[in-house]
Each structure stands twice: as structure tokens, then as C-alpha cells.
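re: that chain from earlier
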Amino acid sequence: MYNLNMAQNTQYNDSELKSQALPYKERLNSWAVARLLPDTQRVIVARFRSQSDADGNLRLLRQMTPNARFEVVFDCQRDETVN
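^ sequence. v structure.
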């Protein structure tokens, strides 16, 4: 008979693994829909992986709130998203 038990690494920190994967995950959603505010300010309202998804959401937002100004942006500075 073969012994199939393998040594396991039990000396790892799970929070370290999560923090290492987070920057890559954050980089996936760089296309954003921003609400344009006075004084050249903006608020990111949604993030997407593709520009076409952001464009589709932009059309919907413009239909639902015609008085607000929205724009699709490629955001690499990682502003906070409004929830």
C-alpha cells in the first residue's frame, strides 16, 4: 500500500493571502461610470470590467436620471465607489 498523506503547510496567514490577491482584483474593474458634480468633482457610482458594460449602464442611468450628468471613465486611481 502507498501512503498518500502529504505534508500540509499550516503556518500560513490567511489574511496575508487575501491582501496579496486584492490589488489584482481591484485592477480588474477599471472602467467606471462617474457622476459629474460642480467644481470639476466626480463620484464613481459603478465599476465594470469592460467598456461596453460601462456604456450600457451609462445609457440606463441617463434614462433613469436625465437631470444628472454621467460619464464613462477609465479610472486607475481607485476612487471610492458609492454603495
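Residues 27-74 form one domain.
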